[in-house]
Design goal:
This protein has eleven helices and eight strands. The protein is of the alpha/beta class. The strands form two sheets. Strands 2-1-3-6-7-8 form a six-stranded parallel sheet, with helices on both faces. Strands 4-5 form a two-stranded antiparallel sheet. Helix 4 links the parallel strand 6 and strand 7. Helix 3 packs parallel to helix 4. The chain is elongated, with a radius of gyration of 18 Å.
């Protein structure tokens, strides 16, 4: 494999992000983009067709999570590396990605040259994790940052829905933001409230706001806002 470019599959639900990544990566002599996908299901399918060496994967996808897709890909094609590239700055998602077999987890605020280096490193077998998130994970393990018993019950997509509720969005607005059917969002909200033991979305929004204020101290100044802006 050393005598040919690293073959990369780009997975993101936003076409403009995929196009930008393709342009950036195809400009490198030692990297070539062999395919794109916008959903978790298509990502798994494209791996079988495109035979990439590395998948660059977002966490938030319309039909599931990049973590679930990573787990499936690693189970079926253990030689394929997966690099999570996301704006979802959450130590719980990082922990789940590690357990799913991801080679790395970096945030979209990363510089272009750093991303290229991360892709080369992940393809070479290096473990690449965002330093701020790694610190948060290890502080949780040491007991310095206790996990949230309610939020840990939620899936990554339910957490994203909760975040948007906390921002004051309606189900219709959330559906547009996440490229989901409004009925699907309604189901996510119902499941989320049931898991949290709450009956009203306003109650969940208030809880999320308090949690966000506490969580912001776990990340460097600006990182939480950049990731969730």
């Amino acid at each position: 494999m050393a005598d040919r470019p690293t073959r990369v599959l780009v997975v993101d639900d936003h076409a403009v992000v995929r196009e930008g990544l393709r342009a950036l990566l195809d400009a490198q002599d030692d990297i070539t983009v062999v395919g794109e996908a916008g959903t978790a299901e298509d990502a798994v399918r494209r791996v079988g067709f495109d035979e990439p060496d590395l998948v660059v994967m977002d966490v938030q996808l319309p039909d599931g999570t990049g973590v679930d897709a990573c787990r499936e890909i690693r189970s079926r094609w253990p030689h394929v590396k997966v690099l999570i590239l996301t704006s979802f700055a959450d130590d719980g998602a990082l922990h789940a990605a590690i357990l799913a077999g991801a080679a790395g987890y970096v945030l979209k605020r990363i510089q272009s040259d750093e991303l290229i280096a991360a892709i080369r490193g992940a393809a070479a077998g290096e473990a690449l994790l965002d330093p701020a998130l790694v610190d948060a994970v290890f502080r949780r393990i040491r007991g310095e940052v206790p996990g949230d018993p309610l939020l840990e019950r939620l899936s990554a997509q339910e957490l994203r829905v909760l975040e948007l509720i906390e921002q004051g969005m309606t189900n219709r607005q959330i559906a547009a933001e996440l490229h989901l059917a409004e009925k699907t969002v309604k189901n996510y909200v119902s499941n989320m409230l049931a898991k949290m033991g709450m009956s009203r979305r306003s109650e969940a929004a208030a809880y999320a706001a308090r949690r966000a204020a506490n969580t912001a101290t776990q990340f460097p100044p600006g990182s939480w806002d950049e990731a969730h802006g």
